[in-house]
Amino acid sequence: xxxxxxxxxxxxxxxxxxxxxxxxxxxxxxxxxxxxxxxxxxxxxxxxxxxxxxxxxxxxxxxxxxxxxxxxxxxxxxxxxxxxxxxxxxxxxxxxxxxxxxxxxxxxxxxxxxxxxxxxxxxxxxxxxxxxxxxxxxxxxxxxxxxxxxxxxxxxxxxxxxxxxxxxxxxxxxxxxxxxxxxxxxxxxxxxxxxxxxxxxxxxxxxxxxxxxxxxxxxxxxxxxxxxxxxxxxxxxxxxxxxxxxxxxxxxxxxxxxxxxxxxxxxxxxxxxxxxxxxxxxxxxxxx
Length: 288
What we know:
The radius of gyration is 20 Å and the shape is globular. It has helices at residues 12-21, 45-49, 62-72, 90-101, 115-121, 132-142, 157-185, 190-197, 205-208, 232-248, 254-269, 280-287; strands at 2-6, 25-29, 40-41, 54-57, 81-84, 106-109, 112-113, 124-129, 146-153. The chain is built from twelve helices and nine strands. By secondary structure, the chain is an alpha/beta fold. The strands form two sheets. It has a six-stranded parallel β-sheet with strand order 3-2-1-4-5-6, with helices on both faces. A three-stranded mixed β-sheet has the order 7-8-9. Helix 6 links the parallel strand 8 and strand 9. 48% of the residues lie in helices and 14% in strands. It has two domains: 2-154, Rossmann fold (3-Layer(aba) Sandwich); 160-287, Orthogonal Bundle (N-(1-d-carboxylethyl)-l-norvaline Dehydrogenase, domain 2), CATH 1.10.1040.10.
């Protein structure tokens, strides 16, 4: 099967390589950056997607998704499937789905969780929106890039699940960071805090799998000077998507609003740009 992969960057690159290693004929395309070694480069967007049975996109936001789909629409062959693994607003996913369906093309919004480590190891979680039939068709391919895929509902449901997940991830990381800082102020060994919380009611992914304190728990970006596994800018973007969705639905999201406030300050004024989102622990420490 020919697979066109549009957006072969920090996440898309290892995902595309996993597909190639699984035996798929993968051609990659980026508008502005070189294609990673090992992936066949497409010369243009149109030529990359021509004759591809599956097009996978990993793009910055909903506007980028809509622009790319509009540009490649005339080059997709009848019956081709587009699987968007970007994190976008729900409305963009639904708009693209309607546009493609009108051309007898298929679409799934299938954002991922797991960061660059999950992309490299092939252990991503996919949350998919679209028809059940299309999900079952593409499921074996998703499993070459991830360890779990959940069909969440119709078009846009995958993005809804992703932003709900991300609002939790943002808030729990902040709470986890604050717990370590309080423990330090109280004279408690951070390893002892981890040993207790990781097996108690405070258990969370932020504590157990992505601990923000260096030298505690499994290896995380904190042990690599917070080189990004998941960049702070991306967490801010995702938390803003959740907050905007809440406003649109008349839902007050007080904790998410505070998360957006803190991540905005961290990224824009606190040295967070280009760093892992767990590095917010240093920003919180400095502010007292």
